[in-house]
Specification:
Helix content is 21%, strand content 38%. The protein has helices at 15-25, 64-72, 86-95; strands spanning 2-11, 29-36, 41-48, 51-58, 75-83, 107-108, 114-117, 129-133. The longest helix has 11 residues, at 15-25. The protein is globular and about 45 Å long.
Length: 141
């Protein structure tokens, strides 16, 4: 079912500092940077081999990203596993008792990834698990 770790999402208070860290110090390639007002975030995506690093900074002091920072400080918010047919796998996962924050239907992000976020209560309390179908990725499978 899981092909590889698709992305690791990191929440930061200062995206410019994070870009400096990932691009200039870790030498990861910056693939995309954008503001997504509807999600209250500034976003930067880096290539790290077959995995992406998704860096997110809240742009307003309210919302889930700011709540994450207030509770945990900067750090990893979630890990997403690549699934090649998310719509095909979702019913079987739901049958095992997993629940998704989006319900049964995956959402497509602004970068073309189809996602399902696992509700922690259905995954033995583990938070920050997600599955992504890399619909618009150009990488080999």
């Amino acid at each position: 079912m899981f092909a590889f770790v698709h992305h690791v999402a990191v929440v930061v208070p200062n995206i410019n500092e994070a870009i400096d860290l990932f691009q200039n110090r870790f030498r990861l390639k910056l693939l995309r940077r954008e503001t997504i007002a509807s999600s209250n975030m500034e976003l930067a995506i880096f290539a790290a081999g077959a995995t992406h690093v998704e860096v997110m900074q809240p742009i307003k002091p309210e919302g889930s990203l700011q709540a994450f920072l207030d509770k945990n400080g900067p750090g990893i918010q979630h890990v997403s596993f690549a699934v090649h047919d998310l719509d095909g796998e979702a019913p079987g996962l739901l049958a095992t008792g997993l629940r998704f924050s989006q319900g049964e239907k995956a959402t497509v992000t602004s970068v073309g990834w189809k996602n399902l976020s696992v509700v922690p209560g259905s995954a033995y309390g583990i938070s920050g698990l997600e599955m992504t179908e890399p619909a618009l990725d150009k990488r080999p499978t």
